[in-house]
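The instructor's notes for this session suggest beginning with a concrete chain rather than abstract definitions. Hand out the sequence below and ask the class to guess, before any prediction is shown, which regions might be ordered.
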Amino acid sequence: MTTNYVKTALVVGATGLVGNSLVRQLADSALYERVNVLTRRPLAWQHPRLQEINYDFDRPSSLLVQADHIFCCLGTTIRKAGSRDAFLKVDYQYPINIARMGRANGASLFAIVTSMGADAGSTFFYNRVKGEVERDLALLDYPALLIFRPSLLLGQRRDFRFGERVGEGFMRLLAPLIPAKYRAIEADKVAAAMIRYARKEESGVFESDLLQ
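After discussion, reveal the predicted structure:
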C-alpha cells in the first residue's frame, strides 16, 4: 500500500545526525500536514509545518505522543551516556515507551534507526541492545514497522567523536573496495530512505546498501 498523504509525523531524536536531517526533509516534503518533534532542547530553526514539543523522556506523557507515523532516531554511545544502564535507557527504554504510547494512540507506522549488526543474541552489548529493541518493537503490533540499520554514519556532528572521525576517514578512502552493505553512509541518505520507505507503509529491515 502506498500513502500519498498522511496527516501527522512525529520525530524523536531530532537533534542527532540522522534526526536533524530527517526533520528538515520531512518539513520540506509536504508529505505531512504537520511534523511534531519531541525534544529536550530547541532545534534553532523553524518551519510552518514544524511543531516543537518540549518533552521529558524520563516522565513520559502519552498525550504528547500523537501521530500517524512515528520516526525514532534516538541513540547515544556508552561513553557519552556514562554507563551501560544510561545507554540502555536511551537506546532501548525510550524508543519502546514512545512506540507503546504511539500505538495506543493509533499510530500506524513506527520507523527506527538501529545499527548494522543489531542482534538480540549478540555477545557485544551495543549490538545486543539494538537487537533487543528491534525484537520488542515487533511485539507491539504496528501495521508497519520499519527498521533501518546503517553502517558508519557520515555527517557534521554537534559533538566531536575522535574514533568515529578516524573511522570516517578510512571508510571514505577505502569505499571502492568495501561491499555496499558495509560502506559508510551519509546521514542525509538515511533520512531520505526513511521517508521513501515510510510512504509505502510496508514493514521491513533495511540494511545500509538499501539506503543509498
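Then share the key points. Residues 6-210 form a domain with the Rossmann fold fold (CATH 3.40.50.720). The mean pLDDT is 90.
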